[in-house]
Fold these 4 entries.
Entry 1:
Amino acid sequence: MDLEVMDNNGSICLSRNESDRGTSASSAGRSTALASVLIFTIAVDILGNVLVILSVYRNKKLRNAGNIFVVSLSVADLVVALYPYPLVLTAIFHDEWTMGDLHCQASGFIMGLSVIGSIFNITAIAINRYCYICHSLHYDRLYSLRNTCCYLGLTWLLTALATVPNFFVGSLQYDPRIYSCTFAQTVSSYYTISVVVIHFLIPLLVVSYCYMRIWVLVIQVKHRVKPEQRAKLQPSDVRNFLTMFMVFVLFAVCWAPLNLIGLAVAINPVKVAPNIPEWLFVTSYFMAYFNSCLNAVIYGLLNQNFRKEYKTILLAICIPRLLLMESSRGVTEGMKSKPSPAVTNNNVAELNV
């Protein structure tokens, strides 16, 4: 039975049970919205990043030092869609975490690896583009196959070293607001500040510096301030740079709100943490989650080689015969025509991202 409450004027106020039903309906609506966003993110994340990896594997024009880090970034984005995100989705459906503490710690750790791995790979990509465009004479030596593999290994080693301290601090905890086992911003103020500075702000500054230098060079070449660079800086180089610049911008936009909230909470946890609206906190987290599916979309929209490979792979999935026909056609055309020097000369070949 509903408990009716009379006000001073004798009118009936909202009953307690009706209020509870309203709160429950609101919570159910929010859970449905979050689940919808996460399902879409998982689907696009898996499909898009698998397409990126297959495209680089299939297309020789895409197999270069720079794209090793692009594949590495895709792997970092893909792993969260295969393990942590499905667990979050399960928690949303059950309205609680039901997978136990081991899965909680494991999913939080893998999510941390993905996030830090993404920003470190984006930083590595920016440094690679900076060396290719601004120091082209030394690029082949700096990014030989051996050196590139070493840089990639160093990137993931630093990622692991940056993630492991979470176990010692005890910062991987379940947060019912976002149905996730993730980094708890209020466990240690000093550690939270360190995480934001080392894992977000410093990489952001490095990437910003690299892309600023590239922008300056592009503008100088365009206005003939440095005409000697025109032969070295091809239109495809500019397009590829713009593609990776957009990847960086979207990452910064999606992750900045959560990092700024964490920094504010760490500086004054007593006053700031209780005053952050729950909707703002949840929105910032799911914006960050959503970023994992965007990179593959950007490659497809802005890069012709990726877009062509996407179409070929998707058609091959739907109509397997087309893949065999295209492979046969490629072999025949390759026998009829000799490769041009531009394709075989590393110093003048285009860098396609």
Note: The two ends are 65 Å apart (CA to CA).
Entry 2:
Amino acid sequence: MQIQLSKRAPPRDVRASDPSPMEQERRRQRRRITAAAEEEPRSVHDVPDELLRLILLLLDSPIWLVRAACACRRWRCAVADGGRTFLRLAGSFHPPAVVGHYHVRSCRPFAFVPSPALPIDGGRFSLDFIPAIKDWKVADCHGGLVLLRKLGGSLANLIIVCDPLTRRYQGIRHPSEKQLDQAYAAGAFLLDGEDGSISISNFRVLHCFHQGLRASVFVFVSTADGAGWRFLRQSTDAALAGSTDLSIWAWRPVKILDKSSLEFSDVDLPIRIDRSKLPRGSAFTVVHGAGPNPTSPPTTWIIHVHGDALEFFRLVRGGGAWVLEHSIPQLSEATRGLPGCHKVLKWRAVDVIAGGTGIAVVSARDSYKRGWLFSVDMGTKELQVVPEDRIKAYHRTTRTFTYTLPWPRSVLACLPP
């Protein structure tokens, strides 16, 4: 007897089965989204407002931020949203843009030298709108303003605060001569106004005078309801030596004047140079550089020059202590063998004539009064001879002042159509 076995149907493949209704609906949604994306390509205008503001905060120059605000109505509203909140936040994230330097020279007049990184017209920052400008010299730059002092330092003369961008200025008389009998002006510095902002009508001027071994400090306050000088304090054992965001007072002991709080503090610099040897005088210069990342505060150094020896002290953020980061016992030995530098047994005079952007420019002269310029990268302490194409800019320069472009104080939002 023959038995015929029937073939069993193969097991049903679940994966090959029809999708469930829920899966079908998901596929239809994906197809609709894909079709919409193909019909209407996404652009930068589809970026959410919160993400757009984060992108604009990455712009590290006020020039680029203003250009972005002029690009379209939506970007301008993003910058102007919340009044000055966005602009203050952007300014706190990035250091001001350096557009150039005012060079004070041994031969008049001073000159503005634009930064090679920015293609700008240097004539835009000329101070030719100041009457008798050849009789003045630059004393400080801060917040887009320039402070001028009369040559000669007579107390009967004025000081001038001006804004090169708006070509506005105002003169300020020195404190009463009765308060400064037999005194001479030692330094003048620009500060923010008492509300933390600065403009041609809202600023402060810190003015130092020497009376023998005493140093008197006055502060001029310019506000909408009037202006005037007020006495800050007097020191009997200090002398003003240099300034940027900090004012350094040197001798016995070294003192720091915080320009925001106007408070003095003693500084314990770990000086290793034997200052009992000639020359007797020391020079101190403050140099600022970029922080380790865009959101960190700038790094601050003090350069101490004694003869042809240099010491570099760095401020440790948080602790407020100064550490000896680098030293050059003899500049003549350190520069020997550099391309373009002649062999010199010892430099007769050494000065730091420029700083403020992480690069210090050191001027050195030999016994025959021949001069060379060296640049020091404050981050790496690399020493180089200044290239010949830049030497002309420093011709007879005794000091430079860094001019930074201020972040815009306000941007008006566009009106609705």
Note: The CA atoms of residues 136 and 150 lie 5 Å apart.
Entry 3:
Amino acid sequence: MPAMWPIELQEAAVEWFKVWRKRRLYRRLLRLSDRQLRARDLSRPCLMEKAYMPLRQLLAEQREVCKPR
């Protein structure tokens, strides 16, 4: 049987990757004009905050949102 990474390590790597992709999406959205952002109900200041937030902080926010109640 081949060796496997610990499940927790795999899950952590996937979480970090998802957060990194989300931050990359925010940065790509910043390239749009203000008119295009308004059409998508997005605000530039909010996007800028999210786009330049540290990955650790974005991950903590995502974990809070996804926390089971």
Note: The chain has a mean pLDDT of 90.
Entry 4:
Amino acid sequence: MNIVASDTAPRAAEPWWKFPLVWMVIAGPAIVVVAGFVTLWLAIRTPDPVVAEDYYRRGVEINKTLADKKLLPAQTGRNHAATPSDDVPLPKK
């Protein structure tokens, strides 16, 4: 029987960076870190808009101008289970 020496000799271990599965495991956290830095950059670059000092008064004024029930479907329809039957919003035509 003729045995080739390379068949019985143990192979030398390859370096870790030559295995594709290692790169798949590293890629997930690396992408998350990059996305975190992109989010931080966007948050610093675009500041939040300032809310008006009198936002509540402005909202009350808007509600007064929309006093007609047909213009307030969310307010009349949001609690439809507890709304009396005479106060049900009309369907759109």
Note: The radius of gyration is 33 Å.
